[in-house]
Specification:
By secondary structure, this protein is α/β, with parallel strands linked by helices. Among the domains are: 193 residues, no CATH class; 249 residues, 3-Layer(aba) Sandwich (Rossmann fold). Helices cover 32% and strands 9% of the residues. It contains 23 helices and 14 strands. It has a 5-stranded parallel beta sheet with strand order 10-9-11-12-14. Strands 3-2-4 form a 3-stranded antiparallel beta sheet, with helices on both faces. Strand 2 and strand 3 form a beta hairpin. Helix 6 runs antiparallel to helix 22. The longest helix is centred in the C-terminal third of the chain and has 18 residues. The radius of gyration is 26 Å and the shape is globular. The termini are far apart. It comes from Rhizodiscina lignyota. Keywords: Membrane, Transmembrane, Transmembrane helix. This is Glycosyl transferase CAP10 domain-containing protein.
Length: 649
């Protein structure tokens, strides 16, 4: 019997006589277990699409005063219903939606792509693919031959030739992102044209084209965009040019500060583009004195703007990407490069990341033990919402970049863990009308979020949550599993989980199993070195994800904040308000049913549109669009079978 199994069984069961009856005992235990637990990865909902997102409005907190989040949830649900109304059900309507939104004909192979989507019971809404055109449009301003040759010559590339996929990379022992992407492509290669997909294997975004140059490319693409007469359109690919060209020198920059490279991607005359990089991080981080920009009474309303460093230049002071990333290898030239995430103004072409494609838990970027002993039998189970703990739970490593003695107080994960540490909050002397000043958190004065624990009312209560720090400690269980010192003082220090400069402020806790993590209702997701590889797993769970990020991903057009997850600002100043809204301050003040509704709706939607099949559908669409922009006949290439006969008449 596996040792992990025995560790979870009482001593009397492990006795010699009891072991003989272990199969029977396990059977009885499992019957009881499954009676109160549900599968983590249920089959996708078979409810009619018209019924998804139509939960009846709950009146569970009708006696509670109005709150801004009430309006945001209503807006999110309305936006979700509007998105669902745009679903297309046949190739002709899908092609019509494409032409209306893109002002081009769909690329060759569009019919086979849609057939694959239908065969795999996919929901197709043209808006789902907006990111592809944001990413690929600038390449219409460049030579097809040049694009295809640069793609072919990159050091990490997946290639399709005659319906078969191959790949090349530089290190066999590298984390297997390239083989995973290859596997994603291989399943659809037989229906793809010849194409090369160069991929970014680093955490950081690498292509940062200055705004003026990028704007020139975008304007050139707009001029070229038109619907060609159907009888002049061809669906025959001309293939990749065979004549080699000299490899282009992308002039990779290998040192920072990263902010000074990034800020030139922001529109000119903006505050961000003219703000030089901060080099001294010895002082405490500086946050805006008011509500986050473009928020709604302090809460995220515009998710796109909330994630944008160009709209939030203070992010260079509070996010590890701009303080000191783990690596820098960037170019200001528009070169074809595909990746799993990027900053909004970076110019990579987004595709589903390999961490989402992999079924191997060891590629969890936080090193979490996402499986317990039941996973050994292929079982993944989860408590229903009513049996989950009413708390916020997070475990992870202190990643986000190279946190040093001089800069660690500015990193996002350090700040988040400090904010949800009841002892740290109590030690800061947080009181109504006074400024909270922990080691790394300046908080707005005068209680702008009208928190009950700070507005004076709580002083009269005698309950265990009468002090703000007690309230935080009661509802939040947040900790690091590794403090990731840099630089390590010796080779052996690399394996230490503590750190001389940050250990006095953080208690390192053990990693948690997947089942333990999913036993809580509220699960935050915070950027590490780049995007967080756990977000998809959280969406597929029946817990409620609380998300903060500056990174864009392939699925962003499919997910609606406040309908599928709860967004928070990257300063985290709104986290206490979110906590009080959903968890409450005392009995009778929570919006538990609202939280459960978002969690349930997000889980159902993720199981419909974020499956492995959906990743391949997105990747297929990306690759036929990229193959077209690389084709010498790209202006005439398209799929018009649905309108050709009508056009000829």
């Amino acid at each position: 019997m596996h040792s992990k199994v025995l560790q979870g069984i009482p001593t009397w069961v492990r006795s010699r006589s009891a072991r003989r009856n272990l199969p029977l005992l396990l059977a009885v235990a499992l019957v009881t277990f499954f009676a109160s637990y549900s599968f983590l990865e249920p089959a996708p909902s078979k409810r009619p699409i018209s019924q998804i997102g139509t939960h009846s409005p709950q009146q569970e907190h009708s006696k509670l005063p109005w709150h801004p989040i009430d309006d945001l949830i209503k807006e999110g649900e309305q936006q979700f219903r509007s998105l669902l109304a745009e679903q297309t059900h046949d190739v002709a309507s899908a092609a019509a939606a494409y032409r209306k939104r893109r002002n081009r004909h769909p690329p060759p192979g569009f019919d086979k792509w849609f057939e694959y989507a239908q065969k795999n019971d996919a929901i197709i809404v043209e808006e789902f693919f907006d990111q592809i055109y944001h990413d690929i449009s600038p390449f219409w301003a460049l030579s097809p031959r040049w694009i295809s040759q640069q793609a072919k010559n990159f050091e990490h590339v997946i290639s399709v030739r005659r319906g078969k996929a191959t790949y090349k990379t530089d290190k066999a022992k590298r984390v297997p992102w390239v083989p995973l992407w290859h596997d994603m492509v291989a399943g659809i290669a037989k229906d793809l044209p010849d194409v090369d997909m160069p991929v970014n294997v680093l955490d950081e975004s690498r292509v940062l084209v200055p705004w003026e140059r990028m704007n020139t490319f975008i304007q050139a693409e707009k001029v070229s965009r038109r619907l060609q007469p159907a009888d002049t359109v061809t669906s025959e690919w001309s293939g990749i040019p065979g004549m080699p060209v000299e490899r282009f020198d992308a002039k990779w920059t290998l040192n920072g500060p990263y902010w000074d490279i990034f800020r030139h991607t922001c529109p000119t005359r903006t505050e961000a583009s003219n703000m030089s990089a901060i080099r001294d991080f010895s002082d405490l981080p500086v946050l805006p004195p008011k509500y986050p920009e473009h928020s709604y009474h302090g809460y995220v309303r515009n998710w796109t703007i909330a994630k944008s460093p160009c709209h939030n230049p203070h992010l260079q002071n509070i996010h590890g990407t701009f303080i000191e990333p783990t690596s820098i290898a960037t170019t200001q030239e528009l070169v074809p490069l595909f990746g799993g995430s990027k900053l909004q103004h970076n110019s990579e072409i987004l595709i589903p990341p390999p961490a989402y494609w992999s079924k191997d838990a060891k590629y969890d970027p936080d090193g979490g033990t996402w499986s317990d002993w039941l996973d050994a039998f292929g079982w993944r189970i989860e408590r229903p919402w009513a049996q989950k703990l009413n708390r916020i739970l997070w475990r992870g490593v202190a990643s986000g970049g190279r946190n040093r003695k001089e800069n660690w107080t500015h990193f996002q994960r350090h700040r988040f863990v400090q904010m949800l540490n009841g002892s740290a909050v109590r030690g800061a002397g947080f009181a109504a009308g006074k400024r909270l000043q922990t080691t790394n958190l300046p908080f707005p004065e005068n209680n702008p979020y009208n928190l009950t624990a700070l507005n004076g009312e709580s002083d009269e209560r005698k309950g265990p949550l009468s002090e703000f720090g007690d309230w935080v400690a009661h509802y939040a269980a947040v900790a690091f599993t590794h403090l990731v010192c840099f630089p390590a003082e010796s080779a052996t220090d690399r394996w230490k989980i503590t750190c001389p400069y940050s250990s006095p402020f953080y208690k390192v806790m053990n990693q948690l199993s997947r089942n333990t993590l999913l036993s809580s209702r509220y699960l935050p997701d915070i950027d590490g070195n780049s995007y967080s590889g756990r977000f998809l797993a959280l969406l597929r769970s029946s817990s409620l994800p609380i998300k903060a990020t500056i990174y864009s991903e392939w699925h962003d057009s499919r997910l609606i904040p406040w309908a599928h997850f709860v967004p928070i600002d990257n300063t985290f100043v709104d986290i206490y308000g979110v906590m009080e809204y959903f968890l409450g301050f005392e009995e009778g003040t929570s919006r538990d049913l609202a939280a459960e509704r978002i969690a349930s709706q997000g889980q159902e939607w993720a199981n419909r549109v974020l499956r492995r099949e959906d990743m391949r559908i997105y990747l297929w669409r990306v690759l036929i669009e990229f193959a077209r922009v690389c084709d010498g006949e790209r202006d005439r290439l398209g799929w018009v079978d649905d309108i050709l006969e009508t056009y000829r008449q």
